[in-house]
Amino acid sequence: MNIQQVIDDISADVRARLPEMAGEVASYIPALAEVEGEQFAMAVHTVDGQSYVSGDSEQNFSIQSVSKVLTLTLALQRYGDTLWQRVGKEPSGTAFNSLTQLEFEQGIPRNPFINAGAIVTCDALYSRLSAPTHHMLATVRQLSGNPRININQRVSRSEYQHRHRNAAMAYLMASFNNFENEVEEVLKVYFGFCAIEMNCAELARTFSYLANRGVDVASKRRILAAKQNSQLNSLLFTSGLYDAAGDFAYRVGMPGKSGVGGAIIGVVPGKFTVAVWSPKLNEYGNSSAGIYALEQFADRLKLQLF
After folding, report:
1. What is the reported pTM?
2. CATH number where 223 lies
3. For residue 227, is it within any domain?
4. Which residues of this UniProt protein bind substrate (predicted)?
5. Cα dist. 240→42, 111, 150, 267 in Å?
6. Host domain of residue 124
7. Considering its fold, how many domains does the chain have in total?
């Protein structure tokens, strides 16, 4: 099937529906609240290096929680299975910024894709890297093929200024001895990761290794061991869209990760990664148009992982 035609058709469909589609841009981060909500982009990057784009494909956006996949990837490179002593592998069943569950489970976050889990994973990275932000940017620039990718400092500062709930989670983990570094310094790094900016085509290319048994499609460099890559995709399938992961698995049927900037990545192992971006979010913090587009994409291409 012609992938370009499929995503062009979906893009046109979404464009027609966007004005009436439910959802609002993220408002709890002021810099994100200013983004125009009725935008949409879609991109596919195949394991043989082909790229297909549609919609607002040149528009940059902050990837937000999609960055948690990269944080986990870098941490797994350095810790392997010992990382799971500090963070769990189970779906949360609660909001991505829940404090209640963290308190009940004595400072061990349920998984690395909720905020507490990503923050403690970032803390682990901070312990092993002398310049974690520099290392992350170098990694993203290589994987995306764009050496100019950078952090939107305005978004990063805005998130840090409104850090109170995330800081509460970090200090709570510290109270349970599950934090190794200065909380405020780790949070600055964490928000910097979230504020990395790229476009939809670059996002799909960045995560090509997830569809290619842990090997970056462009450089042929191994990013993760094949087993680690499979395990990461399993975690994305069960936990990548917070407490809407089950609905996403049912409707779309692929591993995925969302961010409140409006991006979602999806993975079809052995075939391609697909990225969508549209800033209007549903009640779970996932892109309304993005979910719809990925469901249509899976239906049109008859993608069945099971």
Report:
1. 0.96
2. 3.40.710.10
3. yes
4. 65, 115, 159, 166, 190, 242, 260
5. 19, 9, 24, 11
6. 3-301
7. 1
